[in-house]
Amino acid sequence: MHLHILAFGNVQGRSYRWFVFSIARKLGITGTVKNLPDGNVEVFATGKKKALDEFLQAIEHDAPYAEVKGLNVHHIPSKEYQGFSVL
């Protein structure tokens, strides 16, 4: 599965990208995470459905310093990544 995710809330300047990175690496998910000029964080994630479900749960509810108000999640066409990168 391939997802495009926008995380919104108080997610920049709170180590949120590094939290997303660590969860992705732990679950074997590839993709990217980056801050957007509008204050949101954008994630592209590729992995197995079970891993992505766990990933979404964690990045929405378990970030220790960020205040995630919600995620906008969209399925996207296949996209191949080598590892997971913070941009």
In words, what does this structure look like?
The structure is a single chain. The chain has helices spanning 16-27, 49-61; strands at residues 2-10, 30-35, 41-46, 67-75, 84-86. With 87 residues, the chain is an alpha+beta fold. It has one domain: Alpha-Beta Plaits (2-Layer Sandwich), CATH 3.30.70.100. Strands 4-1-3-2-5 form a 5-stranded mixed β-sheet, covered by helices on one side. Helix 1 runs antiparallel to helix 2 (49-61). The chain is globular and about 30 Å long. The two termini are 21 Å apart.
Q: How does the major sheet shape up?
A: 5 strands, mixed
- Rough outline: globular
Q: Which bin fits the share of residues in helices?
A: 25-40%
Radius of gyration: 11 Å
* CATH topology grouping: Alpha-Beta Plaits
- Lateral arrangement of strands in the main beta sheet: 4-1-3-2-5
Number of helices: 2
How far apart are the termini?
A: 21 Å
Mean pLDDT: 95
Q: Per CATH, which architecture?
A: 2-Layer Sandwich
Which terms summarize this structure?
87 residues, five-stranded mixed β-sheet, 2 helices, 5 strands, 29% helix, 38% strand
Brief rundown of the structure:
The protein is an alpha+beta fold. The protein is built from 2 helices and 5 strands.
Itemize the secondary structure elements and their pairings:
Blueprint: E1 2-10, H1 16-27, E2 30-35, E3 41-46, H2 49-61, E4 67-75, E5 84-86
Parallel strand pairs: 2-5
Antiparallel strand pairs: 1-3, 1-4, 2-3
